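Table S2 (continued). Query chain:
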Amino acid sequence: MPPKTAKGRARGGASPAQSTNGRRRSPEPRLAPLGIEIQRFGSLRLAPIALASTARSESCRVLNIILADSMILYALYKKHHWLVMGPTFYQLHLLFDKHAEEQSEIIDLLAERVQSLGGVAVGDPRHAAELTTIDRPPNGAEDLPAMIHRLLNAHEAIIEKVRDAIGRTEKSGDWGSNDLLMGDVLRTNELHTWFIASHVVDLPLVEG
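Corresponding output:
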């Protein structure tokens, strides 16, 4: 009767090797069990950054709310980038994509800040959808004025939360989050609002 290792190889299984530390090694993937959290959302791990845990916890909470809204806004921009129609299609097709890229950068900065504070950043769009206060658009295509109106509402909702978070992080002394919110998130959203709102000013394309 052939040895077990040869029998295993005959079946297509790899023969494990013995490592120097006594553990058996194998080229087979080591799949982990799913759904086991090593850190719960809303909890904090140690972050020796000379900032009280209460301040870090509050900052993570407000940053995650803004992060969730920003993920939804990014998705809105991509949706409108694909579905926009009309005489200004080309300009808005490019503008919506540019704003989406800049919102993507904000998303990354916000998520990394939450992680550096010892929290867990919102990472799943389905989780973001549970946290956001931005209205869900229809699954189909809307006309251009409705698209822009929806984007302006989303930006204003985010800006309102950002202004509140700036005050909270200033009070708690979380200057890193405060600088991010003021220097990147607020200014970018204000700039996007200006660009988008300018497209619905009632002016003729050409003066006669």
